[in-house]
Amino acid sequence: MINIVLFGKPGAGKGTQAEFLKEKYKLTHISTGDVFRYNLKNDTPLGKEARVYMDAGDLVPDELTTKMLIDEVNKHPETNGILFDGYPRTISQAEALDAFLPTIGSKVAATIALEADDEILVTRLLERGKTSGRIDDQDEDKIRNRYQEYNEKTAPLMGYYKEQGKFYAVNGIGSIQEITERLTAVIDNL
Ligand code: AMP
Predict the structure, then answer these.
(1) Largest CB tally within 10 Å, which of 63, 74, 77, 79?
(2) Which molecular-function annotations from GO does this UniProt entry contain (predicted)?
(3) What's the CA-to-centroid distance between 49 and ligand 1, angstroms?
(4) Looking at ligand 1, which atom is closest to the CA of residue 69?
């Protein structure tokens, strides 16, 4: 299994790039944001619990998120590898992933960050909010709150993965194809 963590601020293009990478490397794409939104839409017990955090642009508590993530991974026992999009987002989640993957004989191969300037991303998200229907993309205060969550809780993961020698960063500004090429250059060299 080759497991890749796609890392980056909201709006950096993780979801867009994941669509290309999953085809190219035959990976299972797990977006925790997408799984939460599916549960919200279907008003499941998980959706009911997650809604208040998501609508505010806050992170959903670790325990709930990690349980959901492990359930998702376990749905794909035969996979070539997993492309994690939006998980882990806290040190505690990264530790949980590092504890869980060995139980299925696996590990994180690399974490690749898509880097982009905050102001470009805020504009991108507000634009996306006009068509995505996502409440958390429509209000600049909520978007800024998501960046604050990122800076406080998610940014420390860079150091966590650097210490493990698994952190790579690519410039997230450019055409979709250019960015895909930067990502594949990293993955092909692993
Ligand atoms: P995303 O689509 O990745 O931007 O995620 C949308 C929202 O889902 C986030 O703002 C959080 O409320 C929630 N979420 C997604 N992934 C996680 C995670 N790994 N930890 C906590 N909350 C998450």
Answers:
(1) 79
(2) AMP kinase activity; ATP binding
(3) 13
(4) 19
Relative to the CA of 14, which ligand 1 atom is closest? 3
Which tokens hold the place of 162?
């650097």
What's the CA-to-centroid distance between 63 and ligand 1, angstroms?
13
Strand-pair partners of 153: none
Binning pLDDT at 50, 70 and 90, where does residue 1 land? Answer: confident
Domains of the chain: 3-185 (3.40.50.300)
Clarify whether 128 is annotated catalytic: yes
pTM score of the predicted model = 0.96
User: Measured in angstroms, how far is the CA atom of residue 114 from the centroid of ligand 1?
Assistant: 17
Q: What integer best gives the mean pLDDT of the chain?
A: 96
pLDDT at residue number 19: 97
pLDDT digits (tens, 9 = 90+) for 74-132: 999 999 999 999 999 999 999 999 999 999 999 999 999 999 998 999 999 999 999 98
Q: Is 14 a catalytic residue?
A: yes
Query: Residues near 31 by Cβ (< 8 Å), separated by ≥ 6?
Result: 14, 15, 18, 85, 86
Cα–Cα distance, 151 to 149 (Å, whole number):
6
